[in-house]
User: What shape does this take?
Amino acid sequence: MSQLLVRGGGCLRGSVTVQGAKNSVLPILAATLLARGQVVLEGCPHLRDVDASIRILRYLGCEAQWEGSTLIVDTAALKRCEISDILMREMRSSAIFLGAILARCGRADLSYPGGCELGPRPIDLHLSGLRDLGAEITDEGGVLHCRAAELRGREILLSLPSVGATENLMLAACGASETTVISNAAREPEIVDLQNFLNACGAKVSGAGSSAITVEGGQSLHGCVYGCMPDRIVAATYLCAAASAGGEIFLRGAEERHLAPVTAVLREAGCTIVSDSSGILCASRKRLRAVRTVRTAPYPGFPTDAQAILMAALLRSRGATVFEENIFENRYRHVDELVRMGAEIQVSGRVAVVTGVETLHGAPVRCTDLRGGAALCVAALAAEGDTHISEIGHIDRGYQDIARDLQALGADIARVESPENSNPDRRQR
Ligand code: UD1
Assistant: This one.
């Protein structure tokens, strides 16, 4: 079983190219079901969740193959409209296939994605929006049966700006007759990327990035060549790593306009951050200071996916910072692991208070979820001594090769195959 072994205490110095965005690629892979013809996805990150999506596409009868970092998908030979329970459980965001299969086949049968390590993961907004478009949906023992002889565009008002529901409805609306307007839509950059991909395939979608998205249905979609956007949460991870360990790094391809809430907090904490069209430079030369309350919120608010990562960066800051998690119920599971490294954190409900300590120390810790795992890497780089991070399969869901990237930034980190061969001579560099 793989672990990450981190020797902390050194500054970071170097540059790295930021991988393609997981949260953009996953809905795009579902969207390939709408296109007749080959889709060529350039700069596609090779991740566990991407592999899970590929397994779903292949199960449905589609072809998907890698050529280096390009993923080529052809969904012409689709032969199934259902997804097995095992495949649905491999990836919590698999519900995104519902709208696409329904639009392509007029029916879809798949099991409920269920809860996850962040707490319950309801899809009621996805389902009510699909019903608004004319789908009949029944739930038989956790299996959803969806039927729509014809999907018909109309106005859909989301009661909250769910990212997944917005994406699912955009896909279903492409297969509907007439026009759909999604109000109170999520505004995340990944939604804009999905719109750009769909339009590159011949769809007529507008408004993404605002709260109202318009989809003119009934267009026939073709294949395209598309480049994936950079992953803003991976970029946030490396910025936070440099902020807390100290040093100066450059993230090639990272876009600050996607990261404004994170870079604003890092500047407040004392970092120097400059960016241009080629990427973001972050320099951190002294102990960070505590910042004003960090409240997670839908985009353009502070991203919930960066909460654990920023918390890890502030563990040795001067003063106390309050975090308020407003998106997911169970998103402080990393706290107990950080405490093992000497952090001082008090959690009460959705609030966590981090009081900066002078030093952190290495410890054996375990990933509790994807971003919680990345947070352990950030903390370990600023800790004295060695940290062994286990259960790193969580990290592999969203980071193509976190050890290689952090090594490029000058970190002493290695992926080791088992605790027995974790001595420095046998590390995989
Ligand atoms: C996406 C991201 C995830 C990120 C999250 C919030 C992907 C693959 N994942 O997840 O990394 O943390 O956005 O930025 O893009 N909700 C309902 N009913 C629904 C749908 C959602 O109550 O039908 C609630 C959720 O429980 C949660 C909140 O809405 O509390 C936000 O969820 P949502 O925006 O849908 O997140 P995801 O699309 O699952």
Q: What stands out?
A: The mean pLDDT is 94. The longest strand covers residues 35-42. The pocket of uridine-diphosphate-N-acetylglucosamine is lined by residues 23, 26, 93, 121-126, 160, 162-165, 186, 304-305, 327-328 (CB under 6 Å).
